[in-house]
Design goal:
6 strands, single chain, 1 helix, 4-stranded antiparallel beta sheet
């Protein structure tokens, strides 16, 4: 009799496990590379910028650039801003 109970319990357990609803696959998060934040100062101004990882041959995500006048800590909102990048081989790339 005990053997019958064990077999019945095992059979019912297998049926229940086999009929259990399947769980949806777990979402896998994309591997995100953190950006870089840089702050540079002169006697008159502060330049703060954040930029995403750069990949050669691919367009960049937007940058955040803030220029502050140190005399009164107000933002500089007018005038041209030119960025110059120097490659390892010495070539310089500029953008406005």
């Amino acid at each position: 009799m005990r053997r019958l109970h064990i077999c019945s319990f095992s059979l019912v357990s297998l049926i229940l496990v086999g009929c259990a609803p399947t769980l949806p696959p777990m979402a896998v998060e994309a591997h995100v590379h953190p950006g870089t934040a840089v702050t540079l100062w002169t006697d008159q101004s502060e330049l703060f910028f954040e930029y995403p990882p750069m990949v050669a041959g691919q367009p960049s995500e937007p940058w955040a650039i803030h220029v502050t006048r140190l005399s009164d800590f107000s933002p500089i909102t007018e005038g041209p801003l030119t960025l110059a990048f120097q490659a390892e081989d010495g070539r310089v790339y500029t953008t406005r």
